[in-house]
Amino acid sequence: MNKEENNQSAYGTNWNNIDLNSAYERSLNILNAYSFEDLLLEINCNLRDINEATVTKQFNESVESKINCMKEVFEANLKNIVKEAQKTRNEK
User: In this predicted model, what pLDDT tens digit does every residue of 63-77 receive, in sequence order?
Assistant: First the structure.
């Protein structure tokens, strides 16, 4: 599986080439939500010892991972974003 195939969801969204003319793709979240439920699940699945230090470490690792994914999507779509922003500004 190549990198582009790996970045397509089950719904066919190509995260390396978001179509900003599509209302659906334009409304997609760059950063997914992270709930207390998500954190508690991660804690219970990943931590042997549960204390403030291990929970903080788990939280920081999860947030860093999400931010890194967000940065990858942003960087892959930077040209699309700039082009759409310029087009929108020129229409005003």
Answer: 999 999 999 999 999
What CA–CA distance (Å, rounded) separates 67 from 3?
19
CB 35 within 8 A of CB 42: no
The pair of three-digit structure tokens given for residue 48, joined into one six-digit string: 């042997």
CA 5 and chain centroid, separation: 17
Of how many residues is the chain composed? Answer: 92
* Prediction pTM value: 0.75
**Nearest 10 degrees: Cα torsion 30, 35, 38, 42:** 100
Residue type, 70: M
Nearest of 33, 34, 31, 35 to residue 71 by alpha carbon: 31
Cα Rg of the chain (Å, integer): 17
Residue carrying the six token digits 């219970």: 44
